[in-house]
Amino acid sequence: MTAASHPRTGGAAAAPGAGDPLLQIDDLTLRVPSRGPLLHGVSLAVGAGESVALVGESGSGKSLTTRAALGLFPEHATLTGSVRVAGIDAVTATPAELRAIRRTRASMIFQDPRSGINPVRTLGDFLTETLVRWHGLSRGDAAAKAVAQLEQVGLPRASALLEQYPHQLSGGMLQRVMIAAALLDEPELLLCDEPTTALDVTTQAGIVELLREQQQARGMGMLFITHDLGLAASLCERVVVLRGGLVVEEGATEAVFRDPQEAYTRQLLAATPRIELDRFGGALPVAAQPAAAASSAAQPAAIRAEGISKRYRIPGRDDVLALSEVGFELARGGSLGIVGESGSGKSTLARIIVGLEEPSTGTLAVDGGVRPQRPLNAAERRALAAHTQMVFQDPYLSLDPRIAVGRAVADVVRLHRGASRAEAEREAGALLDRVGIRPEQLASRPRGLSGGQRQRVALAKALAAQPSMLVLDEATSALDVSVQAQVLELVEEVREQFGLTIVFVSHDLAVVSRVCEETIVMQRGRVVEHGRTAQILGEPREEYTRRLIASRPEPLWEQAA
Question: What is the CATH number of domain 23-116+189-270?
C-alpha cells in the first residue's frame, strides 16, 4: 500500500471548522487495473468523540476505506471522490500534507501487529522513535511515557518490555503494544483495523474501556473495523455495513442491529457465534470415547501430557516459565478447547503438541509415541507433519509471499500424498473452494488477499495433508462471522469424515462451545480448570473462568428491548 500519486486539483486545504467531522469520506470510488473496482461510492463521517463501526465480510472494502484516511492506496489505483482529514483531502494531498496527517492528526492500529514492527529493533526503539523525532521529547521522557502507556493497555513488567524484541511476545501481547503505540501520539482520529482479534475477552474488555476513556478525555474520533458484531454494539454509536465495496446499510448501532433493513445485515447477525451449552449432550461422541470400552491396549490416546513445563532462558534476565506442570489426556477423534488470557501459555502448549518446541520437563505422548525432550530433526518433523498439522494465528507466517496460493496448497498435496501435478492442482482448487477462495484468486499471492482470505488459505493448506490431528491456534480470530461459520462447519465436516482429533486454541468461548467437547482453562502457564465444555462454560468452578465468561460482550440484538 502506498500513497497514490494524483495531480493537485486546488490549493492547500483550509482549516476545518469547529463543527466539521474529523473524517469525511464522500463518494469514494477506487479501481485497480488488475482487479477492477474495489470501492463504489463509499461515504461516511466520524465526528469528534464519536465511534463508528465498519462491518462486513472479508474483502468487502473495510480496510481499503479505513487506510484511505492516511492516503494509503493500492499502487496504480484510480480514485474519485474525497477523503478529508482535518481539512486535508488525502486523495489529492501532497506528501508533506500526508505526513502531517499521519504524525499529528490520525493514528492507525493494523490487524497484523508483526507487519508493523521491525523485528530487529527493540520495542523501546519502536515506541519512542516518534516521540523523540517528531514530538521533541528526551529519550528518558519518551521511555517513561511509553511505559505508562504499556501499563494502561494491561501489559505486565512494562519497563522490561522496552528491551525485548517482537518475537519474544505472544500475538495478543504484541497487539497491545501496537495499541499503545497508536495512543502515544495522542491522535484526534484513531483508525482501528480489527485491533482486538488477537486479544482474549478480558483483555479486550479492558482495551475497550481504555478506548472509551481516551475518547472522553481527548474528544477523539474512532473508525473501528471489526467482524465481532457484539463488540461493535458495545463500543460504537453508529455502524456502517459494507458489502463488495458498497455501503448497504448505516445508522445508529442499536437501530441497525435490533431492526436491520437489509437481508445481508440480518445474515451477518445470524452468523454471530453463540455459546452452545447443549451442543454435545452428556456423553462424548463415539469417535471421542475412551478406547478402554473396546480395547484399551489397541487404542492409545491421541495426546497424553504429564507434567509438561516450558522454561525460556533470556540472557541477563530471569527465566520465563511459560508452562508449569500441565497434564491432560485427549482421546482419538476428540476435540479439546484451550482458552485463557493472552500470555497464559496456550500457544506454547499448541506448539509443543505439533513438535515446533520441546518441553523443558515432563512427558508428551502423541498417538502412543513419546516425544524426545530435544528439537526434532528434519526427518522427524516431516513424518510428524504427515499426520499433525497446525493452523497459526498469523497466516503470513505459514504462507510464502512469493508463491501463488493455489500452488502453495497443491505443493502440500504433492509432498505428503505423492499426487501428480494435475491431481494436486485439482484437489487444491477444490479445497480452496470449500474454504471460500474463488477460482480467480488461485493465482494471487498472499499480499493480494485480505487477512481473512489468507487465513482460509492457511486452513486449506493444513487440510491438504489429510492429517489425523489438526491444531488450530486462534485460526478463526481474523475471519468475519459468516466466513467463520463456514470454516467451523468445514472443520466439523472433515473431523467427522476423517476422524480427526482437534485441538482448538481460542479466546472466543462461543467458538469453543461449538467445536470442542472438552476444555482446558489456562492462567499464567497452569491449567486451572479442565472438564466438559458445557460444565466449564455453564457452571465454572473457578473465579478466573467466570471472569472470562463475564467479559464476553452480550449481543445487543439478543438483549431485551
Answer: 3.40.50.300
Report the DSSP pairing between strands 238-243 and 388-391.
unpaired
Same fold, 23-116+189-270 and 286-387+467-558: yes
Other residues' Cβ atoms within 10 Å of the Cβ of residue 343: 23
CATH class of 286-387+467-558: alpha beta
Beta-carbon contacts of 320 under 8 Å, excluding residues fewer than 6 positions away, are: 311, 312, 314
Asked if 464 and 494 touch (Cβ cutoff 8 Å), the reply is no
Percent of the chain whose predicted confidence (pLDDT) is above 70:
91
Read off the pTM: 0.73
Length of the chain: 561
- Edge-to-edge strands of the sheet including 501-505? 388-391, 469-473, 501-505, 335-340, 518-523, 526-532
Q: Which residue has the cell 480467480?
A: 440
Task: Tell me which of 521 and 418 has the higher pLDDT.
Answer: 521
Average pLDDT of the segment spanning 35-47: 91
For residue 243, CA distances in Å to 240, 257, 453 come to: 10, 16, 15
Q: What is the pLDDT of residue 6?
A: 40
- The domain spans of the chain are 23-116+189-270, 286-387+467-558
